[in-house]
Amino acid sequence: MGWHLIRFSTILVYLFMFLPVAVVVLLSFNANQFGSFPITGFSFRWFIELAENEAIIRAFKTSLLLGFLTAIISTTLGVLASLALVRYKVPGSNFISTLLIAPILVPEVVLAVALLLFLNFLSVHKSFFMLLMGHVIFTLPFVVLVVQARLMGIRRDVEEAAMSLGATPIQTFFQITLPLLAPAVFAGMLFAFTISFDDITGTLFWKPGGVETVPTQIFAMLRNSISPEINALGSVMIFFTVGVPLLGAAIARRIANKQSQ
Amino acid sequence: MSAVKLENIVKKFGDFTAVHPMSLDLPEGSFVTFLGPSGCGKTTTLRMIAGLLDPTDGGIYVGDRQINDVPIHKRNLGIVFQNYALFPHKTVADNVAFGLKHRNVPKEERERRVREALELVQLPHLANSYPKQLSGGQQQRIALARAIVVEPDVLLLDEPLSALDANLREDMRVELKRIQEQIGITTIFVTHDQSEALAMSDILVVMSNGRVEQVGDPKDIYTNPQSRFVADFLGTSNILEATVAEENGVAGVKTDAVGFVPLSSAQMDKLVGAANSYLVMRAEKIELLAADAPADDRLTFTGKVEAVDYQGQLVRYFVEVNGEKFQVLNMLGTDGAMKEGQTVSVRFKSEDCVAVGEDA
Hints:
The structure holds two protein chains of two kinds.
Chain A: H1 2-27, H2 45-52, H3 54-87, H4 93-105, H5 108-121, H6 128-153, H7 156-164, H8 169-198, H9 201-206, H10 214-224, H11 228-259
Helix pairs in contact in A: 1-11, 2-11, 3-6, 3-8, 4-6, 6-8, 7-8, 8-11, 10-11
Chain B: E1 4-13, E2 16-26, E3 31-35, H1 42-50, E4 57-62, E5 65-66, E6 77-80, H2 92-101, H3 107-120, H4 136-148, E7 154-158, H5 166-183, E8 186-191, H6 194-200, E9 203-208, E10 211-216, H7 218-223, H8 228-233, E11 237-247, E12 250-255, E13 259-262, H9 265-269, E14 276-282, E15 287-290, E16 299-311, E17 314-321, E18 324-331, E19 343-348, E20 354-358
Parallel strand pairs in B: 3-8, 3-9, 6-7, 7-8
Antiparallel strand pairs in B: 1-2, 1-4, 4-5, 9-10, 11-12, 11-14, 12-13, 14-20, 15-19, 16-17, 16-19, 17-18
Helix pairs in contact in B: 2-3, 2-4, 3-4
C-alpha cells in the first residue's frame, strides 16, 4: 500500500515537471494557427516560420555567440583559478575560493542589479561585452567547482614525474594535466554554455538596447501575443539545453573511460 | 652516471628545520639508502636532490656540476615515486617514451630503447596496455623502466616498494637490485624499512630528526652502531645504561643488570667525552639455555622467562635478569621453546656487546 502511494506521487511529480514541456513540444507541431489545443494536424509550419523570422534568427545567433564566448572565457579563467588555488599556496586561498563561488549564492536579481549599478557608477555603457562579462561572472563558479574537484584528484607526483623526465612546467600542463583534466574542462564548458544560453534575469538587466537573446526574445514576444512560433522556439531551446549537455556528458564519459580502462 | 655530492645542505620550512646541515659523498655507481623513521628528513633530502624542493642553503653536485639552480626538467635524473605516478592517459609504451620524446630522440631509436627498457623490466608484452590495467608490481616496473630509459645521471627512488604487498615487495627488491647492478647507475633509495635498507645498500645513511646519524656499510652499521638511535632503530637491541669502569686492568662498562662487561678499546673510544654511556646487546646475540646447562666461557646469568612470542623459526623471549627486561631472539631448538615462568641460563659474549655514547 505504502509503495503504491510513493509510486503514485512520484509519477505525479514527474508529470507536473515534464507535462508542460511535453505540451510545448507537442503544440509546436500543431497545424492550428492558435498555439493551443485542440491539435488539428501535424506540421512543421511554425518551425519554418521561425526560421524565416529574422528577429528570432538574430536572437539565436546572439545567444549562440554569447554562450560560446562565455564558455571559452569562463573555462579559461576557471581552469587558471583552480590551478592557482589547488596547486599553489596562495595567501587567502579559502577566501578567494569562497568569492569565486559566491555568485551562485547571491540571488541572480541582486547580482544583476548590483552589476548594473556598478557599471552606472563607473559611467560604463551597457554593451555586448558587459553582457558577456556578466555571464562569465555567474558561470565561473560552476566551472571552478567542477575543475577544482577533478584537479584535486590528479596526483601532483604525476606532474612531477613528467618534469623529472624533461618536460617544462608548461609542457607538463598541456601534455599531462590538461588531458587528465579534460572531462572536467569539457563539463565546465557545457555548464557555462547552457547556463548562459538559458539565462534571462541577468540578461534582461545587462543587455544593451536592440540586442536580444533567445530567452529575452521569447519574453518580448509573450508580451504581445502567444504565437505558436513560441512553441516551436521552445522546442528548439529544449533540444539545445537538454541535448547539448547529454551529448557532452556522453563525450566526457568516453574520455574518462579511455583514461581509466 | 655520476657521483653525487651534498655539501652542507639545509632545508628549513619557516622556523622548522627539516634537514640540518648535511654533507655526503656518494660514489659513482653505488646504491645508497636513506633510512629513518617518518619525519627524519630523508624524503626532503631526496626531493632537494630531485629539484622538487629548493635547499635553504648548501650545494648539490652531480658529477662536477652544481645543480642547485638547475630546474628539475634539466637535471637529467630518473625518479620513481611511491605511488608509481604513471600517466594514466598514456599507454605503457608512451609512458616509457615520454622522457625520450622530450630529449628529441628520433622515432626509431626511441622505439628500440622503449622495447629494451621494457625487456629489462621483463614486461615487453604490456607495451600497449594502459596503467590501470596493470597490477601494482607491474606499474612499479613500468615506472622504473620510464625512469631509466632516458639514461639519467642518478636514479632516485622514493619508497618505491612501500605500496606493494609483502611477497611482491621482496621480489621487487631483488629485481630492483638486479637492474641497478646491470646498468650500474648511481641510485639513491629512500625507505623506512630496515630490512630493505640492509639487504640492498652499498652505503647506508641512517637519519633521524633531520640529521645523519651514521653513514657506512650496512653490516658495519648494524654490528657497530655509533649512536643510541641507530642501535635502537636497527634490529632488536637491549640498551642498558652503563658507566665506564675498569676491573683487573681491563677496561669495560658497568651496568646494574649484568655487572661489569669488558670491551675492546675500539668500543671504549666511542665513550670518550660522552655524557651518557650505554651498553648495547643485540637480541640474537644472547642465548637462553636450560638452567642446568654446563658452563662455558660466556658471561652467564640466571633469568626468568616472562613472555614467549613464537615467530616460526625464531622465538622472541622477554627475560628478566636482575630486575632488567631483556629481549632475546633464538632459533627454535629441537627440544622446543622455553616456557613462560621457566628459570633459564642467559649467556652472551662480551665481544658481541657494543658501547654507544650520547652527548648531553
